[in-house]
Write a structure and sequence with these properties.
This protein is α+β, with helices and mostly antiparallel strands. The chain has helices at residues 5-8, 24-33, 159-163, 166-174, 196-204, 209-212, 214-220, 257-281, 326-339, 345-360, 364-367, 397-410; strands at residues 9-10, 15-17, 40-44, 53-59, 62-70, 73-78, 93-95, 99-100, 107-108, 114-116, 140-144, 147-151, 180-191, 231-235, 241-245, 283-288, 292-295, 300-306, 312-321, 370-372, 381-383, 386-392. The chain has 12 helices and 22 strands. Residues 208-209, 212-213, 346, 350 line the site of fe (iii) ion.
Length: 415
C-alpha cells in the first residue's frame, strides 16, 4: 500500500478509495485496529438459555467460544488450546460441563480455566502451572437487552456509551417486546465480498432499494414501488447508522387468520413501550459499528464475519416476541427466511451487488479508483423527536460517519 489511510479515505469530501476493500495489508491492520478496538456481537441470551450452553463464533477472524456460565453471566475465550493450538470446541453449539481438547485431552471448565491434564504427574512431573494455562479470555463481556457483546479493548467506553444515541434506535429492535427470543437456528453462508460492503450498506444505503430490489418489491405486492418514500437517516460519531422510512410501513408477514388478533394487540403494546415514532416509523436497516446489523420489520439480525479481504461469512438469525403464539413465531421466521437469508429474495440481490463489486476490484485500475460518498454532504442537522445527527433518508451521511470512525481507529486515534 503506497497511500496513507487518510489519503485513501476522506469522509469530509465524500471519497473512499476502492483499495480499502481489497488490500491484504489493510485487512490485516483492520483485524487489530477495527476488530481489536470495537465491541463485537457474540450471541443472544436466548441462544444460550441454560448453564453450560455454548456456541462457537469469531471476533474478527479469531475463533472464540461463548458460554453461559450460570447466574446470568457469560464467558468468552479463544477457541484455541494452550497446548498446541487445537480448537478446544469443534461444535457450532451445544451444552457442556467442560471442554476437552480432542488432540491430547486437556480439559477446560466453562470459564476456560485449564482443570485437567493427562499425565500431569508422570509426564509433566507435576510442574505444569495450570492456573496460568487457561484459554485466553475475552476481557470484557456485556449483556445488553439480551444481546451479548465482547471486546478485547480495555480502553473503550461501556457498551451503552459506545452506542451513544444509537441506543434509541437499537431499542426499537431490541426492546420492542417484553421478552425476546431467537427463532430457529442460525443461517450461515459466505459471500465473496469485503465485510465493509454490507456493514456500510445497512448503516447508510436505503438508496439502493428501489433499484436493486424492484423485482422483489413487485413480487411482495403493495404500493412500495410507486409510493413516494419519505424518511430519515441517523449517523453517529461512533460509526453506527440507520436509515428508515417515515411512512407506516406495511408488515409483509403472512400471519394467517388466527394470528391477526395477536398482531393487533401487539402493535398497541409496541406503541406503548416505544412511542409512536419508534414503534411504527423507525423501520429500517441499521449497523452497530463495525459489523453487526439488523432490520426492523423483518426482524433479522446478523454479523458480517470477515474471512479475508475478499470474503465474509454471514451469521443471521430472526428475533421474535417470546410470548407470541407459535404460529406467529413461525410466520416471522418464515418471513425472514423468504426475504433476508441465504435464499432470501432481497438478500440475494444485495449479495449479488457486493460480490460483483468485489470481482471488479480484481482489476488493478479498479483498485486505484475512488468511490463516491457525497450524497447529502453538508446537509445533516437535527430533527424533533429523533436523537442524534439526522439527515434525509437519501443521504450518505451515515456512510461518511462509518468511514470517519474507520479512519480514526486505523490511524490509531482516540477511542
Ligand atoms: Fe489441546 Fe494438545 S493441543 S491438548
Ligand atoms: Fe438491500
Amino acid at each position: 500500500m503506497s497511500k496513507t489511510y487518510s489519503q485513501l479515505v476522506d469522509p469530509d469530501a465524500g471519497r473512499v478509495g476502492a483499495a480499502i476493500y481489497a488490500d491484504e495489508d489493510i485487512y490485516e491492520a483492520e483485524m487489530d485496529r477495527i476488530f481489536g478496538q470495537s465491541w463485537l456481537f457474540l450471541a443472544h441470551q436466548s441462544m444460550l438459555p441454560k448453564r453450560g450452553d455454548y456456541l462457537t463464533t469469531t471476533m474478527g477472524d479469531d475463533p472464540v467460544v461463548v458460554v453461559n456460565k450460570g447466574g446470568g453471566e457469560y464467558a468468552a475465550f479463544m477457541n484455541q488450546c494452550r497446548h498446541r493450538g487445537m480448537r478446544i470446541c469443534r461444535a457450532d453449539q451445544g451444552n457442556a460441563r467442560a471442554f476437552t481438547c480432542s488432540y491430547h485431552g486437556w480439559v477446560y471448565d466453562l470459564q476456560g480455566n485449564l482443570t485437567q491434564v493427562p499425565h500431569e504427574e508422570d509426564g509433566y512431573l507435576s510442574k505444569l502451572d495450570k492456573g496460568r494455562m487457561g484459554a485466553t479470555q475475552v476481557p470484557r463481556i456485556v449483556c445488553f437487552r439480551g444481546f451479548v457483546f465482547g471486546t478485547w479493548s480495555s480502553d473503550l467506553p461501556d457498551f451503552e456509551e459506545y452506542l451513544g444515541d444509537m441506543v434509541w434506535y437499537f431499542d426499537s429492535f431490541a426492546d420492542r417486546w417484553e421478552n425476546n427470543e431467537v427463532l430457529g437456528a442460525a443461517n450461515r453462508w459466505t459471500i465473496d465480498c469485503n465485510w465493509k460492503f454490507p456493514s456500510e450498506q445497512f448503516a447508510t444505503d436505503v438508496y439502493h432499494a428501489e433499484t436493486s430490489h424492484v423485482s422483489a418489491l413487485i413480487a411482495q405486492g403493495g404500493d412500495w414501488v410507486t409510493a413516494e418514500t419519505k424518511g430519515l437517516q441517523f449517523s453517529s460519531p461512533g460509526g453506527h447508522g440507520t436509515g428508515f422510512y417515515l411512512d407506516d410501513a406495511p408488515d409483509m408477514t403472512d400471519y394467517g387468520d388466527a394470528a391477526r388478533a395477536y398482531r393487533a394487540a401487539s402493535r398497541e403494546r409496541e406503541i406503548e413501550r416505544l412511542g409512536e415514532h419508534r414503534a411504527v416509523h423507525v423501520r429500517g436497516h441499521n449497523t452497530v459499528f463495525p459489523n453487526f446489523s439488523f432490520l426492523i420489520g423483518t426482524n433479522t439480525f446478523r454479523v458480517w464475519q470477515p474471512r479475508g479481504p475478499h470474503q465474509i461469512e454471514v451469521m443471521a438469525w430472526t428475533l421474535g416476541d417470546a410470548d407470541a403464539p407459535d404460529e406467529v413465531k413461525d410466520a416471522m421466521r418464515r418471513n425472514a427466511l423468504r426475504t433476508f437469508s441465504a435464499g432470501g429474495i432481497f438478500e440475494a440481490e444485495d449479495g449479488e451487488n457486493w460480490a460483483e463489486i468485489q470481482d471488479v476490484l480484481k482489476g488493478r485500475r479498479a483498485r486505484r479508483s475512488d468511490f463516491d460518498f457525497t450524497m447529502g454532504l453538508g446537509a445533516a442537522g437535527s430533527e424533533e423527536g429523533f436523537p442524534g445527527r439526522i439527515s434525509n433518508i437519501y443521504s450518505e451521511e451515515a456512510g461518511r460517519a462509518f468511514y470517519r470512525r474507520w479512519l480514526e481507529l486505523m490511524e490509531g486515534g482516540q477511542q
